[in-house]
Specification:
about 725 residues, alpha+beta, Hypothetical protein af1432, globular, binds manganese (II) ion
Length: about 725
């Protein structure tokens, strides 16, 4: 076996760095770190016989390939000093700063594992990775570079160790790199793992590739030229690359029953252009000259993958009838495709970069975090490992909402998994599903690129049967918790879900929002005492999540008036004026039951006119682009139905008293329901009132009663 020795020197590293790190102090810090590590590792050797310093030096060099920042490069040089040398933390902090120390500690912690069974080991490992990511994702990227260099020098280890390391790499690190979108590192890790796990297969494929290389090269080059001429003729500036398929991806396809000669994307090329528009132009030109293979076209520009990947894919009948897989993308998309989360480094100012990386990571982490929370109480270690494996690190499918939002799900997922992933509340009220336009049963197995529409009914509830249908452990746990939790807990969870979703939608970091200082401001503004109360009040519709967010992060100006303003035309038959629309069916939404005088917003339904919501109704948040401005007319109707919840501190039935208080104000009750809680009773009633003033009188009157703790208008 030929071993590629990569003798990177400190001068080469520094030279590489100067390309993109211009700050001289930062350059100096890196040089310092090298000297420091060299001294600490003095006298230590790797199994390959080299001086130990070669390892951290190479790890740092790998990181320059993704334009890592100076702190990461410094930490990479120091990453083994805490573990293997007599070097203490204060020394590193003093010389290189707190951030670098934290990174080094993170990488070191990731290496220390204590376990007895294989499952326990995986649990430990995943947890550490998750914790590492949530603290600073750079830790994981350094760890990936560390592993890559260890894999490159794996030949120096005994056979048994080689296999074990390769297996671990394939199971944990390659999927992790994939998850973070760092394709470059992922595919090298996979190829190296395969080489040690299945050497015969690896060399067999490599040899076949070699044999056919000359022929393929000629064909690809001819095609390359034809396509390039075509684009030049139409004035589209571009660069072309022939594209080598990784050995591991070929192995995967062979494993799925394909023949070597059938793997047509062996002939592949990539076109890089300046703008998104040019991508589509180029595609159109290529399709007009070369017939595309039906159903092989994918638009990941309009609908990016969850790991941020964007590109156009098509397969065409090229010259001599060979099939060519063609990818078209901009230079920036290419950077993201190769380096994923690390591409923030290449495209942003350095300070911003680690922050936006952390924000992006956090969105992914929501999911990891919920697994961690679950694993602490209910989950067995086996469940834990399976759920991480299935849902995060393995080959997921990408499905879409009708609006084109990507929902990433584990393979085998059903519409219920989809619904719960969109929002717990959507999951809980699911009554049916439509996939690509056809109604499907709830246990239908979703496939890549399915467009899924979930039908909900607000009075529907989860069924225990669902536990047998759903695929994802996370969904199963959400369903389970529905059956074990009381209503308050459910509302708290719903509120938390809603707030986090709104934050993500607005691209704010949850971590940044949840600082002590910010929460204090929110608690003060909304006159509440703790976070559960905040979630609860969002969950039951009392607070609008957006107003909560806006107390901390002021909304950008142009985002504010999302509601279209149109000239007003009165609909003579209605107590509501709908802007710009005459004679259209208008109805009051049942979820928030607006009352004359409330701030209202109209929502254009499909085929059912306009439904009027209170402007703080949480059901609106999801549909803002179909909202229009509406106003109450000067002539109100005689009565409006409104839903009110009355919380008490007693188990004594007070309904008669409540009814009496209500009728005293000339208010009729159309429906009243008593909900029994562990130690109190709660009343839900629908009342008829004239307007908001009338309703407020009722709320105030009821609150006077000593046994009533709180009265709220209900938003379902
Ligand atoms: Mn190392």
């Amino acid at each position: 076996m030929a071993h590629q020795k990569q003798e990177v020197t400190i001068d080469e590293l520094l030279e590489k760095i100067k390309f993109y790190i211009k700050n001289e102090k930062e350059q100096e810090m890196i040089q310092q770190a090298y000297l420091f590590a060299k001294e600490k590792h003095e006298g230590q050797f790797r199994k390959s016989g080299e001086a130990y310093i070669a390892h951290p030096l190479n790890v740092a060099y790998i990181l320059t390939g993704v334009y890592a920042d100076s702190e990461s490069i410094t930490a990479a040089l120091l990453h083994d000093t805490l573990e293997d040398c007599d070097c203490d933390e204060s020394e590193i902090e003093e010389l290189f700063g707190k951030n670098v120390l934290k990174l080094v500690q993170g990488v070191t912690k990731l290496g220390r594992l204590h376990f007895s069974t294989e499952n326990e080991y995986l649990v430990e490992y995943y947890k550490k990775i998750i914790v590492g990511m949530s603290e600073d994702v750079r830790v994981i990227i350094i760890k990936l570079a560390d592993r890559l260099h260890n894999m490159r020098t794996l030949w120096a280890l005994p056979k048994e160790k080689q296999k074990a390391k390769a297996k671990e790499t394939l199971e944990i690190f390659a999927p992790l790199a994939h998850h973070l979108g760092i394709h470059k590192i992922k595919s090298e890790l996979e190829d190296l793992s395969l080489r040690y796990l299945k050497p015969t297969v690896f060399y067999d494929i490599a040899e076949k590739l070699n044999k056919t290389k000359a022929e393929r090269d000629t064909t690809v080059n001819e095609m390359l030229k034809e396509v390039s001429d075509l684009l030049t003729e139409h004035h589209i500036p571009h660069e072309m690359k022939g594209r080598a398929k990784s050995i591991y991806s070929i192995y995967n396809k062979l494993n799925h029953g394909k023949k070597f000669s059938d793997i047509y994307d062996l002939l592949a090329l990539r076109i890089l252009v300046d703008t998104e528009q040019d991508c589509y132009l180029a595609l159109g030109l290529i399709h007009s000259k070369f017939r595309p293979l039906p159903k092989r076209f994918k638009d990941y520009i309009a609908m990016p993958k969850a790991n941020m990947y964007q590109s156009l894919h098509t397969t065409v009948f090229g010259i001599d009838g060979y099939l060519f897989e063609i990818q078209i993308r901009t230079y920036q998309m290419d950077e993201v495709a190769e380096n994923g989360i690390a591409s923030h480094w290449a495209y942003k100012e350095h300070k911003d970069a680690s922050r936006s990386m952390q924000n992006t990571t956090e969105q992914k982490l929501q999911f990891f975090k919920s697994i961690i929370e679950l694993s602490q109480d209910k989950m067995s270690s086996e469940d834990f490992v399976n759920s991480v494996k299935d849902e995060v690190l393995n080959n997921n499918i990408y499905t879409f909402t009708p609006k084109g939002d990507v929902i990433e799900l584990p393979r085998g997922a059903t519409p219920l998994d989809f619904a719960y992933k969109v929002h717990t509340r959507v999951g809980e009220t699911t009554v049916g599903a439509i996939v690509n336009g056809s109604i499907v049963p709830l246990d239908y197995e979703l496939k890549d690129n399915d467009i899924v529409k979930i039908n909900t009914n607000k009075s529907a509830h989860p069924s225990k049967e669902w536990l047998n249908i759903v695929k994802s452990t996370q969904t199963r746990n959400k369903i389970r918790s529905y059956f074990t939790k009381n209503e308050r807990d459910i509302l708290i969870e719903r509120g938390k879900d809603t707030l986090n979703r709104e934050l993500r939608k607005k691209k704010y970091s949850i971590q940044e929002f949840m600082t002590e200082e910010n929460l204090k401001l929110v608690f003060q503004t909304f006159k509440i005492d703790d976070i559960d109360e905040l979630y609860f009040s969002i969950g039951n519709g009392k607070f609008n999540p957006n107003s909560v967010i806006h107390t901390v992060f002021k909304p950008p100006e142009e985002e504010k008036p999302k509601i279209k303003v149109l000239p007003k035309i009165a609909d003579s038959n209605s107590d509501i004026i709908v802007a710009g629309v005459d004679k259209i069916k208008v109805s009051l939404a049942a979820c928030c039951s607006p009352v004359y005088g409330d701030d209202i917003v109209g929502y254009i339904t499909k085929g059912n006119g306009i439904s009027i919501h209170r402007s703080n109704c949480h059901n609106l948040a999801r549909m803002d682009d179909r909202c229009i401005q509406v106003n109450w007319s000067d002539v109100p109707a005689s009565k409006y139905e409104s839903d009110v919840v009355v919380y008490t501190n007693t188990t004594e039935n007070k309904l008669a008293d409540i009814i009496q208080k209500t009728s005293k104000l000339d208010i009729n009750i159309s429906e009243a329901k008593i909900i029994s809680r562990t130690d109190t009773l709660v009343y839900e009633m629908s009342v008829y009132v004239k307007n908001t003033e009338h309703l407020t009188k009722l709320l105030l009157e009821l609150e006077k009663a000593p046994y009533i703790t709180n009265v709220e208008r209900l938003i379902k």
